[in-house]
């Protein structure tokens, strides 16, 4: 069998920008309210449910939005009622894009965020954040895939990042 290897250049769609740096909002040591922004991708709800159960906070706000679109102004305003927002899940190009852009919108108005992306899209998510000036945006990685994984598999993936979440949030 004969193989032909063809190399191709791929254009990075992010480009370089000269925009202002976005300073990330520090996470408070006394978190009282947490918002969970669910982009309605398969298993995003289970990811956020598992995080919510592990953190055992009483004041939780659940918000849903379409995966391939920005959160509405109303959803962002609702998320601003909390001390921290978890956004899930980025496991493809458009949903990862909007998870990150929504996180940046929240960081710009002083709400700290933690975004959850699959490891296959986390590099893209970081590059996107940096191209918008949000260096060091908090992005945690779940093992890919997310879609098509049963409930126990998703819970296990999320439990693998719970120690990192507790470290970032200084929660026990």
Overview of the molecule:
The chain is α/β, with parallel strands linked by helices. It has one domain: Toll/interleukin-1 receptor homology (TIR) domain (Rossmann fold). It is 36% helix and 17% strand. The protein contains 6 helices and 5 strands, in the order βαβαβαβαβαα. It has helices at residues 44-55, 73-79, 93-108, 122-131, 151-159, 162-169, and strands at residues 33-38, 59-64, 84-90, 113-118, 139-142. Helix 1 (44-55) crosses helix 5 (151-159) and helix 3 packs across helix 4 (122-131). It is globular.
CATH fold-type name: Rossmann fold
Arithmetic mean pLDDT: 94
The count of domains is 1
* Rg on CA atoms, Å: 17 Å
The proportion of strand residues reads: 15-25%
Shape: globular
CATH architecture: 3-Layer(aba) Sandwich
Query: CATH superfamily membership, which one?
Result: Toll/interleukin-1 receptor homology (TIR) domain
Biggest pleated sheet: 5 strands, parallel
Biggest sheet, spatial arrangement of strands: 2-1-3-4-5
Number of helices: 6
* SSE series: EHEHEHEHEHH
Structural class category: alpha/beta
Uncertain segments: none
């Amino acid at each position: 069998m004969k193989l032909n290897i063809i190399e191709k250049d791929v254009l990075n769609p992010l480009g370089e920008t000269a925009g202002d740096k976005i300073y990330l909002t520090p996470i408070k040591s006394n978190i009282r309210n947490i918002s969970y922004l669910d982009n309605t991708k398969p298993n995003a709800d289970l990811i956020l449910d598992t995080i919510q159960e592990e953190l055992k906070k009483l004041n939780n706000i659940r918000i849903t939005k379409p995966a391939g679109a920005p959160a509405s102004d109303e959803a962002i305003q609702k998320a601003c009622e909390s001390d921290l927002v978890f956004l899930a899940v980025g496991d493809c190009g458009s949903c990862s894009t909007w998870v990150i852009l929504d996180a940046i919108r929240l960081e710009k108005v002083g709400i700290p965020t933690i975004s959850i992306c699959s490891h296959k899209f986390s590099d893209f998510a970081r590059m996107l954040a940096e191209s918008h000036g949000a260096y060091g945006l908090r992005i945690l990685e779940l093992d890919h895939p997310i879609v098509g994984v049963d409930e126990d598999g998703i819970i296990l993936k999320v439990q693998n990042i719970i120690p990192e979440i507790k470290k970032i949030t200084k929660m026990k």
